[in-house]
Specification:
This protein is an alpha+beta fold and 387 residues long. It has two domains: 2-157, Aminopeptidase; 166-312, Aminopeptidase (3-Layer(aba) Sandwich). The chain has helices at 24-35, 47-56, 126-132, 169-179, 181-198, 210-226, 236-246, 295-309, 323-328, 345-365, 368-386, and strands spanning 2-7, 12-17, 60-68, 78-79, 85-96, 102-105, 117-118, 137-144, 154-164, 201-204, 254-262, 265-274, 278-286, 314-316, 331-341. A hairpin with a 3-residue loop joins strand 12 (265-274) and strand 13. Helix 2 (47-56) crosses helix 7 and helix 4 (169-179) crosses helix 5 (181-198).
Length: 387
């Protein structure tokens, strides 16, 4: 399904399509624009991720932007059916539609990098884009830094910790030893003890066994419940999305399941997405029976080593506070939360439905004592769930 709408003020034509309806020319144009953006090559920003979401989220759409050509018709444009001529795609805006025209970032709730893919210098207004998409508002929670069209409307800014392995794993390990010598020494000692007490330690960077993925999702669901958090894998569309991406093999977006084994028994696993240069760390979990050995930390160090050997330059650990991220990171990217809206009653309803909750969460996060109390409360709720 597709629809063509005009944004004449900016001499652009915007076609609204389901992700599955993008043709190969448009997919190639998306990839080319993304490669020219200068942003880290996050697999969440590739067309394969949007197509995967489209298969499990029927409300997924993509706005394909083409600019009107000048009188000379420079650029090899196409006729629009009304006498105008439009060039190759200069922008792609993936989103999901909701009630009352409330839009959201594609895969909101699981996507760790969000935004549009636009040619540098493209003249486009937020109001015109939202109108063409029939959206009153568009919500995001992991908007990347270089999204000039949307960043001014952001309500909050966060760090997404990263591990830089451009100089190789040995260089990363030297830096880690200098920054956190006790952490590295302790983790290495736990790995040796794990091998002595439980059996041979073996690591697989790109495991293809579906049973290992099922085990990871079971561990992760139990972790969510144990810590009092919403179980993402209780939603069928998220389970289906992960299964689908585990089979995706594209240069810009490929599923990677990494598993740490002890005596052929999995004790920790991680599922993420990779491009040629970025590994997006997504769903890590471990067997609680081995918690005293910190298998998750061992797994992440092994992943960093294998990623560097595979030509990956950066592991993006994703937004969210965690001690293991603080220990492993070498720096961070900036991501943003908020929404853009065009004037109107529907946008006001969106603000009223979202903003009070967002402000309450922000208030708690900015106060360590309250955040600690909230964390302990979530833990107690999780323990009650397990009884």
């Amino acid at each position: 399904m597709s629809d063509v709408r005009s944004a004449a003020r900016h001499r652009a034509r915007i076609r609204i399509a389901a992700p599955a309806d993008l043709d190969e020319t448009e997919m190639d144009a998306w990839r080319a624009l993304r490669a020219l953006s200068g942003a880290p090559a996050s697999p969440f920003m590739e067309p394969e991720f949007t197509r995967a979401v489209g298969r499990v989220r029927p409300a997924a759409r993509v706005a394909v932007v083409r600019e009107e050509l000048d009188e000379r018709g420079a650029g090899g444009g196409v006729a629009d059916g009304a006498g105008g001529r439009y060039g190759e795609p200069v922008g792609f805006f993936p989103y999901e539609t909701g009630p009352l025209g409330h839009g959201r970032a594609i895969g909101l709730g699981v996507s760790d990098v969000q935004g549009g893919v636009f040619r540098s210098g493209l003249r486009l207004s937020v109001t015109g884009l939202l109108r063409a998409c029939s959206l009153s508002a568009w919500e995001f929670d992991n908007l990347e830094t270089r999204q000039e069209l949307f960043v001014p409307a952001a309500a909050e800014e966060f760090e997404s910790p990263v591990i830089d392995v451009r100089e190789g794993y040995e260089a990363y390990e030297r830096g880690l030893r200098a920054r956190s010598p006790k952490f590295l020494r302790t983790t290495a000692a736990k790995e040796r003890r794990l091998g002595r007490q439980a059996g041979e330690v073996r690591f697989v960077f790109d495991e293809r066994d579906p049973a290992a993925l099922r085990t990871l999702m079971e561990w992760k669901s139990a972790q969510y419940r144990r810590t009092g958090r919403r179980d993402r894998f209780a939603k069928e569309w998220i389970r289906a999305l992960v299964r689908q991406l585990a089979e995706t093999r594209a240069p810009g977006c490929s599923g990677v399941l990494s598993v740490l084994h002890v005596a052929d028994r999995p004790v920790a696993a991680h599922f993420g997405l990779r491009s040629r240069t970025v590994l997006a760390c997504w769903f890590p979990a471990y067997d609680p029976a081995f918690a005293k050995y910190s298998p998750g930390l061992i797994l992440h160090l092994r992943m960093a080593e294998a990623a560097a050997a595979a030509g990956i330059q950066m592991l993006d650990l994703g937004r969210g506070a965690a001690e293991y991220k603080d220990a492993l990171k070498t720096g961070g990217l900036r991501v943003y939360e908020g929404s853009v809206a065009r004037p109107g009653a529907r946008a006001a309803l969106h603000w009223l439905s979202r903003e009070p909750s967002r402000r309450a969460h922000s208030f708690v996060r900015s106060r360590p004592r309250l955040a600690g109390y909230a964390q302990r409360t979530l833990g107690r709720v999780g323990r009650l769930r397990e009884k």
